[in-house]
């Protein structure tokens, strides 16, 4: 339990806090109430200003020329920040870039995630969702929903969009979990600096080969679009191309799988909401928005001020970093009525799980589509469902959600199974 504001702010920099949601939200509530812009000094990371109010997170994100992504876009260990300062950037994806580069590089993939592209992808996503519900039926009424369904379904969607062979999907999943789970003893490769960097290096080796192949023999996929992009008349550097692949291939599925798994968990722990959604399927769009708010798979981003700035009468000096706490913003009492109530009919739902401003999530529409399709396929077939064990959360300060969700269930046969009888 956080006993004072200093302890509460330090909790936001502790990866273990994000695997203990009660502790995290208790600390965030204290900060929102008593010190929304508070100086934090966690043990393993360099200090930052903790930003916990919805309006303040929006203000920082919208002032992107003052609060820059570089050089510290995510909260990492001191030794990783030292390595970056000594050797330069070891990854330069969209979440690490500022304008003018960000605007130019974002345009490379934008057409693959626009409304027209999503409409073309809808049937395939629906088909995959139905296939994974069929997979649940094949598992005999008991499974770990995270490991058996939630991580594979969006992974298949995004890696197919990239054009990667299905045989490489398990490797991509392992590397993603190692990369985002560097603070989690169940997921990290090891504890040394070399171990923490190894998944990223493996990604880069894989994607550098992919870049060479797509430039030699272009295909009709997102990987070719990235490999053959030439802003300013020149191909992307190896670092920029590989970084682009990494953010699409990892964030493009891990955040969605967290929302889906956490969304199901929320329905199971709020059975009246599950019953309401089954009785009123038209509520699915608002239910998905509430799942995303409830889970908030991106826990934080960092920004660094390039000039002095006053936020709630607190002077943030040039060179100081701020941590944008999305779980806190999405429980802000000034924005959400009964923010700790899971309400599938919540409307409006001004959550910030996808960010705001120029860095708004490129794949937001795809994430929403995948979640809607999965639950649209699952809910009509449910006879009953319940937890079959204790769920567990990923230890992280960046991206994460449930890593274990054991469930027991009964499903009706699919339409196609009934027709075949």
TrEMBL record:
GO molecular function terms attached to this record: cholest-4-en-3-one 26-monooxygenase activity; heme binding; iron ion binding; steroid hydroxylase activity
Coiled coil regions, renumbered to chain: none
InterPro entries: Cyt_P450, Cyt_P450_B, Cyt_P450_CS, Cyt_P450_sf
Domain of life per record: Bacteria
GO terms classed as biological process: cholesterol catabolic process
Assigned keywords, A-Z: Heme, Iron, Metal-binding, Monooxygenase, Oxidoreductase
Pfam families: p450
Cleaved signal peptide residues: none
Record's keyword annotation contains Oxidoreductase: yes
Keyword Glycosyltransferase part of the UniProt annotation: no
CDD domains according to UniProt: CYP142-like
Protein family per UniProt: Belongs to the cytochrome P450 family.
Protein name from the UniProt record: Cytochrome P450
Species, as recorded: Tamaricihabitans halophyticus
């Amino acid at each position: 339990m956080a006993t004072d504001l200093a302890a509460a702010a330090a909790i936001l920099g502790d990866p273990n806090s994000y695997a203990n949601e009660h502790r995290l939200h208790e600390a965030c509530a204290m900060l929102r109430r008593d010190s929304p812009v508070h100086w934090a000094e966690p043990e393993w990371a360099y200090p930052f200003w903790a930003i916990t109010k919805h309006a303040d997170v929006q203000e920082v994100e919208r002032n992107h020329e003052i609060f820059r992504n570089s050089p510290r876009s995510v909260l990492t260990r001191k030794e990783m920040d030292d390595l970056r300062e000594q050797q330069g950037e070891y990854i330069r994806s969209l979440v690490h870039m500022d304008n003018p580069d960000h605007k130019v590089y974002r345009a490379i993939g934008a057409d693959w995630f626009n409304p027209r592209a999503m409409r073309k992808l809808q049937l395939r996503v629906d088909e995959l969702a139905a296939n994974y519900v069929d997979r649940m039926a094949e598992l005999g009424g008991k499974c770990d929903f995270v490991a058996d369904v939630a991580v594979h379904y969006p992974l298949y969607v995004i890696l197919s969009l990239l054009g990667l062979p299905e045989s490489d999907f398990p490797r991509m999943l392992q590397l993603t979990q190692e990369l985002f789970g560097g603070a989690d003893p169940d997921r990290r490769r090891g504890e040394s600096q070399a171990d923490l960097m190894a998944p990223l290096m493996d990604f880069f080796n894989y994607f550098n080969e992919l870049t060479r192949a797509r430039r030699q023999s272009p295909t009709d996929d997102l990987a070719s679009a990235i490999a053959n992009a030439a802003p300013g008349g020149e191909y992307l550097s190896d670092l920029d191309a590989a970084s682009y692949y990494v953010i699409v291939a990892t964030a493009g599925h891990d955040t969605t799988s967290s929302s889906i798994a956490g969304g199901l968990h929320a329905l199971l722990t709020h059975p009246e909401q599950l019953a309401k959604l089954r009785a009123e399927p038209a509520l699915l769009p608002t239910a998905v928005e509430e799942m995303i708010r409830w889970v908030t798979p991106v826990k934080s981003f960092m920004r660094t001020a390039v000039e002095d700035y006053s936020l709630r009468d607190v002077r943030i000096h040039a060179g100081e970093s701020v941590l944008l706490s999305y779980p806190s913003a999405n429980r802000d009492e000034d924005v959400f009525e009964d923010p700790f109530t899971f309400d599938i009919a919540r409307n409006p739902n001004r959550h910030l799980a996808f960010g705001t401003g120029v860095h708004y999530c490129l794949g937001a529409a795809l994430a929403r589509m995948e979640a809607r399709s999965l639950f649209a396929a699952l809910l009509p077939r449910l006879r009953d469902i319940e937890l079959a064990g204790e769920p567990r959360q990923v230890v992280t300060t960046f991206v994460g959600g449930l890593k274990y969700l054991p469930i027991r269930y009964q499903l009706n046969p699919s339409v196609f199974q009934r027709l075949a009888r």
